[in-house]
């Protein structure tokens, strides 16, 4: 491994347990080298808490409790964050000044989202109060209060807001008119969803392990799983850009979108489940991350393991960055930037001192918005060369 492959401080990498498998090597259990085993007993989190500096370019400190969620506007000029303090803020990425204070929530704000043209910001709390705010007028224009909310998203092509509830119902609203369609409950909570690239279909995961493909116009179920249904509830899912493949967590099963048939599974033999899954369509790769600290990069076209690595911290979130960059958040408050092609660690972004709860990338891929249990949100610049 060349020195330029790992651009981190020497003391950082000495505290980090990382194991890489060459893509041509046989997949097998790998033991740490004796040299790494002989390092000091202090963990990565100990090092972070004691010595690490804040590498962020801006820190937002208005929240008083954990910041659960964050979003960046399409223009790249605004950020939005929501937290346990029952409030959401829209603020400038240049200086952190608050542009809009989204009040009125009755519980933790767990979802914030800009619409497709940055005209609106939607905020939602755990109790089911959903509010939509005009960014131009800086005022509340629409709200709805219903069942406990599980997830909230905008349609990527229109002013259509979609929310999934603990009851299992999925609500589809036209904003600001408020016209509503309900994709009726199937008896268990809906936990996650994604609108497909054609804008006409929605994939939804459920607490009983079921996945359903909905037609948004008719409100009909196009298919639901009939075989190999995950034994645990679906906690997250991702879809390829061409809407051909679907992967779900925690089972790491890969399905065809056209008919729901399983085509692969991406669990290591010593792993029971994964926490997060994410496709990189340009490279034909799939990343999985687990609470054990294991994260893997798979070639989903060849059904082969490219790289396997282990961090000394549970993984909470994974995002793909520009080109071949894989960005991993952990419970130690660090953000790890890795080269997915070579399997090398590029840099460790420090500044948080508690769990990373969400990561959002700017449209140009040069900036990361992170939120944390430490009551802050931070902006980091990432290397793209």
From TrEMBL:
Pfam families, per the entry: WD40
InterPro entries the record matches: WD40/YVTN_repeat-like_dom_sf, WD40_repeat_CS, WD40_repeat_dom_sf, WD40_rpt, WD_repeat_multifunction
Protein keywords: Repeat, WD repeat
Mapped WD repeat ranges: 60-101, 102-143, 183-224, 267-308, 349-385
Name of this chain's protein: Angio-associated migratory cell protein
Species this protein is from: Aquatica leii
């Amino acid at each position: 491994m060349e020195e330029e492959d790992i651009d981190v401080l020497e003391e950082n990498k000495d505290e980090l347990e990382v194991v890489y498998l060459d893509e041509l090597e046989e997949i097998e259990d790998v033991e740490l080298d004796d040299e790494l085993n002989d390092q000091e007993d202090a963990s990565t989190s100990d090092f972070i808490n004691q010595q690490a500096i804040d590498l962020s370019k801006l820190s937002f400190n208005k929240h008083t409790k954990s910041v659960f969620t964050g979003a960046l506007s399409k223009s790249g000029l605004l950020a939005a964050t929501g937290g346990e303090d029952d409030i959401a803020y829209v603020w400038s990425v240049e200086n952190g000044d608050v542009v809009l204070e989204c009040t009125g929530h009755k519980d933790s704000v767990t979802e914030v989202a800009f619409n497709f043209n940055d005209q609106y910001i939607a905020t939602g709390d755990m109790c089911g109060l959903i509010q939509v705010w005009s960014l131009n007028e800086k005022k509340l224009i629409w709200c709805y209060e219903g069942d406990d909310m599980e997830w909230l998203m905008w349609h990527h092509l229109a002013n259509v807001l979609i929310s999934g509830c603990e009851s299992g119902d999925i609500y589809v609203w036209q904003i600001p008119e408020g016209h509503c369609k309900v994709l009726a409950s199937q008896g268990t909570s809906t936990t996650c969803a994604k609108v497909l690239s054609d804008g006409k279909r929605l994939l939804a995961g459920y607490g009983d392990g079921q996945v359903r493909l909905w037609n948004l116009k008719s409100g009909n179920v196009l298919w639901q799983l009939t075989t190999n249904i995950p034994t645990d509830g679906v906690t997250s899912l991702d879809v390829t850009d061409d809407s051909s493949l679907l992967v779900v967590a925690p089972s790491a099963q890969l399905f065809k979108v056209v008919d729901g048939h399983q085509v692969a599974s991406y669990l290591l033999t010593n792993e029971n489940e994964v926490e997060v899954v994410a496709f990189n369509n340009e490279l034909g790769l799939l990343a999985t991350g687990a609470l054990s600290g294991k994260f893997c990069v798979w070639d989903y076209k060849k059904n082969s393991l490219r790289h396997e690595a282990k961090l000394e911290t549970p993984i909470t979130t994974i995002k793909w960055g520009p080109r071949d960059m894989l960005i991993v958040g952990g419970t130690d408050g660090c953000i790890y930037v890795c080269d997915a092609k070579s399997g090398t660690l590029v840099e460790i972004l420090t500044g948080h001192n508690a769990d990373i709860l969400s990561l959002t990338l700017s449209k140009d891929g040069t900036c990361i918005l992170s939120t944390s249990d430490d009551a802050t949100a931070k902006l980091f610049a990432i290397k793209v060369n």
